[in-house]
Design a protein that fits this description.
Shape: globular
CATH architecture: Roll
Distance between the termini: 28 Å
Helix content: 25-40%
Largest sheet: 7 strands, mixed
Order of helices and strands: HHEEHEEEEE
Radius of gyration: 14 Å
Number of helices: 3
Strand content: over 45%
């Protein structure tokens, strides 16, 4: 798949909150995923996850930490060469009662028809 085809499928999965199928169908098994907050904190540390199985596990943990989604959005992707960028965000309440409003830029690197790297900057 080209980066444009991947971007089209990815934004559909994101808007449907269907991340598991996105990981299974669009991502390389050796994915590198980086959570990269501009203002690191205990609640939001910089993390690096390697491999699709580890990404599936961390994604499941994040989804299970959410009690309620108040709002979420994903704007149309921007593609240049082998890079896809998607502005997105969410407003959620976690099970511990903490309400988080998160706006981020998700950047995806594509190689050989698969996403090999993703980085979330917020």
């Amino acid at each position: 798949m080209t980066p444009y085809e991947i971007a089209d499928k990815l934004i559909t999965y994101i808007r449907e909150n269907n991340y598991v199928d996105a990981y299974r169908n669009l991502y390389d098994l050796n994915l590198v995923s980086i959570e990269d907050p501009i203002m690191e904190s205990e609640m939001m540390p910089r993390t690096v996850t390697i491999g699709i199985e580890a990404k599936l596990k961390s994604s499941e943990e994040w989804m299970n930490s959410i009690r309620e989604v108040h709002d979420d959005y994903a704007h149309d992707p921007i593609i240049t060469g082998n890079v896809i960028a998607i502005p997105m965000g969410m407003d959620v309440t976690l099970h511990d009662g903490t309400r988080m409003q998160l706006d981020e830029i998700a950047v995806y690197g594509v190689q050989d028809g698969k996403i090999i790297k993703e980085q979330f900057i917020y």
